[in-house]
Amino acid sequence: MEKMSRVTTALGGSVLTGRTMHCHLDAPANAISVCRDAAQVVVAGRSIFKIYAIEEEQFVEKLNLRVGRKPSLNLSCADVVWHQMDENLLATAATNGVVVTWNLGRPSRNKQDQLFTEHKRTVNKVCFHPTEAHVLLSGSQDGFMKCFDLRRKDSVSTFSGQSESVRDVQFSIRDYFTFASTFENGNVQLWDIRRPDRCERMFTAHNGPVFCCDWHPEDRGWLATGGRDKMVKVWDMTTHRAKEMHCVQTIASVARVKWRPECRHHLATCSMMVDHNIYVWDVRRPFVPAAMFEEHRDVTTGIAWRHPHDPSFLLSGSKDSSLCQHLFRDASQPVERANPEGLCYGLFGDLAFAAKESLVAAESGRKPYAGDRRHPIFFKRKLDPAEPFAGLASSALSVFEMEPGGGSMGWFVDTAERYALAGRPLAELCDHNAKVARELGRNQVAQTWTMLRIIYCSPGLVPSANLNHSMGKGSACGLPLMNSFNLKDMTPGLGSETRLDRSKGDTRSDTVLLDSSATLVTNEDNEETEGSDVPADYLLGDVEGEEDELYLLDPDHTHPEEPECVLPQEAFPLRHEIVDTPPGPEHLQDKADSPHVSGSEADTISLAPMDSSFSLLSVSHALYDSRLPPDFFSVLVRDMLHFYAEQGDVQMAVSVLIVLGDRVRKDIDEQTQEHWYTSYIDLLQRFRLWNVSNEVVKLSTSRAVSCLNQASTTLHVNCSHCKRPMSSRGWVCDRCHRCASMCAVCHHVVKGLFVWCQGCSHGGHLQHIMKWLEGSSHCPAGCGHLCEYS
């Protein structure tokens, strides 16, 4: 663990020398603090309170402040601070609500000086004034902050944050009378110690509790805050309203934040749970830490820079019962391992490509040809040579723009807003979505919706009235034989010639069925539709059947409910030799007087043989099942969904998934569905289609997606009068017994839509608040808060 690098720093008349080292403690540490000469460090916890000397090679225990035979809760420390003006003065915050000061100059073993017992709950933080030796500030879980004068036995001021608990308090280094406090409701307050009745400024800094804050040692108005939302934010407090300057996204809740000395943009953080490492960030590069210390094996609870003017040494305490000194030179640097290359498509089709500067420089001299608008635009941040990590992993960015109108995504937005995904029968949904796609010029998508309607909504049954052809087993449609024919009129010549196409092996595979009520359309050789004037009383092709499907036509085997097909009993006539010249039209002319046998007539007309050598046969059963099984098209639909997803049209894939539901859900694995849904929802949110996104989540067939809008649905509100949290039993406050939904403008109870400020809890009717804020930025209730409505 220990590394052999050694640094010697000259600070005025003193010299700091050391290396990376650690020592084992008797118990987990909750907080640490360094004395002003950087030679000693105090470690405090529930079961430890010791002072260690920081020597060149190791930590040496100097003093144990836990004295006495009986353990006292006053010694169970949540925080400790060492005064930067008096090297003998310390203060601790106890878990029982007691604030204790310690005088190391006392000759006795017990160094305890004063006890302040005014807090009712655990004290989370104590802080000495940077220039005033006798001023001590504390923040407690009871929601109050107290200012103590060490020359008196009681507090001189009490500050009420109107919140559940105070997590941190810090005096400003530049402003004598100003201190900042952070709260569990996400607010940060600025106070003047001369005015304990109200705060000077309050703003919501984080989404959740704010655990820590730290004033910048050089920039007067910069305040860094860290919270449970895993973010570190830097605020400029010199402006009229707190302005967020930088935001660093970490991977866990931020427990401590400390600015790095002599480095304006660097700060160190540690996490409250999960992550055990200490990170040093450059706030201008918020996604990759500049340095990382990995010595601890449990949560880091306290960090402190060894000297206010030395950026090389960092001290830390942890729950793994260890105290470490980290040498910045020995820190691992994740930025060195960062990939300098990246590729990303913009929302409207623009392409951004980042690559190493050396690679880009070699091609930066190329000249785009005339008319090329997609030439790369090179730009990069101006590097500061004083920063040790400024030149690492820097990239040049190339942006390729789309041609004007080429990257329009209007069709995506229109489709998302106009598609119908539920609430109607499946046929209507398919027809509506096909119409929308057709109006937007997406003909392939429209045709797909039409085919889905045919597949899942058309019954597949073709009534005999719609057919005037009988097809053999070789027919691609597989339709049943439905009509009866008069074989007497089929002269040998005509019968032989009509089988010419069949003898060539033509199976009429191009016959298609448009829908359940449409007519049957064949190929060009035999174009014939229902109602055609061309006679249809002849048979195309050979008909085969099983023995149990054929019966002699007698009264016992009549099937009036089914159409009949009349065949000769003996056998089919032998095929004649194919002739080169087909018969003339006189054969057809001779049959002009014969009645046309349509499908409807075949159901009612009984045909009898005109020759004794013929008898009647009847096909009593349909040769093929007229309804396709429900799963017949499942593979086809599944492949279609994968096709659209691979083409990038995840909108179509998700829309079909929702509309078809269980019909297709079982054929696509859960992980693929979840990937499609999350991709589509991300696109909708990037286009700010929040309502459509929520509807997709609600209608999702994926369990992992359908629960997305069930998280973070609890809304915590405070009473606008007493500032206390409201209970879940109603809109009347349990403490002040007043209605919380009073409009600050008209002073009437709001019975409809209510809008309020998260900073001061005042609000009212939406229209009233909007009209008020058009002319004033202050709260209409007169509390002085700068409310914001956007």
From TrEMBL:
EC number: 2.3.2.27
GO terms under cellular component: cytosol; GATOR2 complex; lysosomal membrane
Cellular location(s): Lysosome membrane
SMART domains: WD40 (SM00320)
GO BP annotation list: autophagy; cellular response to amino acid starvation; cytoplasmic translation; negative regulation of TORC1 signaling; negative regulation of translational initiation; positive regulation of macroautophagy; positive regulation of TORC1 signaling; positive regulation of translational initiation
Enzyme class, UniProt record, top EC level: transferase
Disordered, as annotated region: 517-536
Catalysed reaction, written as an equation: S-ubiquitinyl-[E2 ubiquitin-conjugating enzyme]-L-cysteine + [acceptor protein]-L-lysine = [E2 ubiquitin-conjugating enzyme]-L-cysteine + N(6)-ubiquitinyl-[acceptor protein]-L-lysine
CDD domains: mRING-H2-C3H3C2_WDR24
Pathway participation: Protein modification; protein ubiquitination
Recorded family membership: Belongs to the WD repeat WDR24 family.
Subunit details: Component of the GATOR2 subcomplex, composed of MIOS, SEC13, SEH1L, WDR24 and WDR59. The GATOR2 complex interacts with CASTOR1 and CASTOR2; the interaction is negatively regulated by arginine. The GATOR2 complex interacts with SESN1, SESN2 and SESN3; the interaction is negatively regulated by amino acids. SESN1, SESN2 and SESN3 convey leucine availability via direct interaction with SEH1L and WDR24.
Role summary: Catalytic component of the GATOR2 complex, a multiprotein complex that acts as an activator of the amino acid-sensing branch of the mTORC1 signaling pathway. The GATOR2 complex indirectly activates mTORC1 through the inhibition of the GATOR1 subcomplex. GATOR2 probably acts as an E3 ubiquitin-protein ligase toward GATOR1. In the presence of abundant amino acids, the GATOR2 complex mediates ubiquitination of the NPRL2 core component of the GATOR1 complex, leading to GATOR1 inactivation. In the absence of amino acids, GATOR2 is inhibited, activating the GATOR1 complex.
Name of this chain's protein: GATOR2 complex protein WDR24
Record organism: Carlito syrichta
Gene label: WDR24
